[in-house]
Amino acid sequence: MDILITGINGQDGSYLAELLLGLGHNVHGILRRNSQSENQTSRIEHIRHKLQLYYGDLTDFASLITALKKAEPQLVFNLAAQSHVKISFEQPVYTMQATGVGFLNLAEAVRIVNPGIKIFQASSSEMFGNSIDADGFQRETTAFAPVSPYGIAKLMAHQTAINYRDSYGMFVTCGIFFNHESPRRGTNFLTNKVCKTAVEIAAGKADQLVLGNLHSHRDWGYSKDYVKAMLALMELDKPTDAICATGLTHSVGDVVDHVFGRLKLSREKHLRTDKKFERPTEIMSLCGDSSKLRKLTGWKPEVTFEEMLDEMIAHWQKELK
Ligand code: NDP
Ligand code: GDR
Q: Residue 290 pairs with which residues in a beta bridge?
């Protein structure tokens, strides 16, 4: 198949591209113009020669039409977004345009070019905000109540996906993904910030890890496991919405304790907090029930929270050498 990925140079996009190439598909992607192109493509440099890349941007409708006409895909995975929750408070308008209206641009471009193209939308547990079922889980039936510009933008995209499914009979599937990480995670997200800084502290190249809220809980999974779920959802006969999560939750403090424990660092000496890393509103607890996804596709997470953090630590130790 010809498959188009938006956000191909991001964490998930790069793993999904590897997975699809390994299955023999022709993989296409859109890239935004960047003044340092080698930095922007660092996650896909090793497979770049196998990819068809076009300049494009979710906020630029015409570029999406052009990319769809060039790639002639059967599937489109929409992984592009301004995906940083804290930054969405600093750039709320842009986040709405890229993460919310950007999906509308893509869905409309597909409808015009070829409504038979199947679309995957990366929806987010941020759409739930602090909504939580009595048993402590979020599931497909939990009410949406986003508390960040990013969460609101993702909800706009999610509802648009459902509307295109219902109004035009298009195949638009949404994976409602909980946090997932890897060594390719941006270093301004919690897990990779902790791993990178702790390795630097252990090597004597930094002294302090400075974080915001230590008490929020997240359901942290492994990116490579989650891109397999994206593909499994797109192989179903019918479009749907399904939660992808591990069903286990840990606090920010637990991440620090695991990483500091592995590197024999003391919290007292090397950890401090600063309000500048806190958000104006915070989600306190995320824990996803992915029974629907598991039942429909047989998917299950393979890498544990601890194994994933160990891989990220090992990555930064190798980088530092
Ligand atoms: P990343 O932030 O690593 O990647 C985002 C990608 O989107 C990058 O390739 C980025 O390009 C691109 N992008 C940003 N803005 C635009 C734009 N306006 N037009 C075109 N491309 C753009 O995110 P992840 O890989 O971690 O996540 C993939 C998707 O899944 C995102 O939509 C995210 O919101 C969603 N998601 C992620 C979760 C997670 O925990 N990782 C959980 C739930 C949902 P550039 O590098 O040039 O900025
Ligand atoms: P999140 O991920 O906001 O859940 O969104 P992030 O790793 O940024 O934060 C996780 C938790 O850690 C707390 N925290 C800090 N976070 C960052 N980034 N930096 C800090 O210094 C820090 N200190 C404490 C946060 O407050 C939060 O509680 C991710 C993104 O990938 C979204 O795109 C995705 O949709 C959701 O996960 C599900």
A: none
CB distance 135 to 229 below 8 Å: no
Instruction: Report the alpha-carbon distance of residue 88 to residue 86 in Å, rounded.
Output: 5
Whether 167 and 233 have beta carbons less than 8 Å apart is answered as no
Report residue 76: phi and psi, to 5°. Answer: -125, 125
Atom of ligand 1 nearest to the CA of 184: 3
Q: Is 86 in the pocket of ligand 1 (CB under 6 A)?
A: no
Taking only the tens place, the pLDDT of each residue in 155-200 is 999 999 999 999 999 999 999 999 999 999 999 999 999 999 999 9
Reading the block at residue 220, the tokens are 């942290």
Domains and CATH numbers, the chain: 2-180+220-244 (3.40.50.720), 187-217+249-284+304-320 (3.90.25.10)
91 within ligand 1 shell (Cβ under 6 A): no
| Nearest-CA residue for atom 1 of ligand 1 | 10
SS3 286: coil
Ligand 1: centre distance to CA 98 (Å): 10
Comparing 15-24, 29-38, 191-200, 261-270, the range with the smallest average pLDDT is 29-38
Q: In this structure, which residue's CA is closest to atom 11 in ligand 1?
A: 7
Is residue 29 in contact with ligand 1, taking CB distance under 6 Å? no
Nearest-angstrom CA–CA distance, 77 and 122: 8
Residue 132 to residue 142: CA distance in whole angstroms: 7
> Is the CB of 7 inside a 6 Å radius of any atom of ligand 1?
yes
